[in-house]
Write a structure and sequence with these properties.
This protein is α+β, with helices and mostly antiparallel strands. Helix content is 32%, strand content 32%.
Length: 308
Amino acid sequence: TPIQPHPKGPVWTLVILRDRSAQQAREHELKRRAMSDPLTGLLNRAALLKSLATEMQRAGRHQRRLAIALADVDGLKMCNDTYGHQAGDALLQAVARILQSSHRGSEVVGRYGGDEFLLLLPETGPVEAVVMAERLRRAVAAFPFAVTEAQHSVPVTVTIGLAVYPEDGATAEALIAQADRRLYEGKRDGGNRVIATPDLQERRRERRITLPAPVFLRGLTEDPQTPLHEGTVHNLNLHGAYLTVPQWRPLALDEALLLSIRVPPHYQAKFPHPRLAACGCVMRIDQLPPEDQTETARLGLAVEFVDI
């Protein structure tokens, strides 16, 4: 605002500064509360559905996969009935922290309602979704949840139903309904399990062929210039393999490996390519004794292929 009290006098300007940081903080807090579940601090159902709609549009536009995981806490009602609703709330908060800390940064996790949590897994196919869900299931099962007042340890497990866009549904409603059906299939079977597509469930039970063959591998994140590590494949199918390798470094469950496997000629009727190049995830690790005194420690690895 210019101020000129006298025609020949100096011109002054009045400037008013307002600190809007407090107002912006209040607006941010109101927005956060509108999107958050008050008990767990995760996204609430409305925010989850909005994020799911956005991710489905992106997946459809770019022709990419999208998986969702619907997780239900096993035994919450028993915990509430035995130790009270405060213990049940503490159990839900503990599971929420595990899910929040265990997922990858690109994924979205929230409380869908009651004892159910929903995870959105962008650019994730059915095999990768099972690997991720199994990691979450194991993380929850390993958590030592204790009811403080009673000093009792309460077993915590989750059952997870998976669905993948577009195979299991072209809309958010259809995708969630499919994940929900698989979730309750797992609950009927006793809980503490991951239920995926029937085709993938059959893959995990498929019989493997005994096939001693050399394999060359390295970790997906290892420098491509480093030498490959040599091991032996003991059985194989088109969905996975069991192999033994010298322990060149510590390996972890769900770690991704690149493999190159030479298929003997007499098996090439079943495996039409003379060499399989695959990317797989470590599903089991067995510590094996050295075969002789000169050999280093060996590992037995069950690997499920993500891509061939």
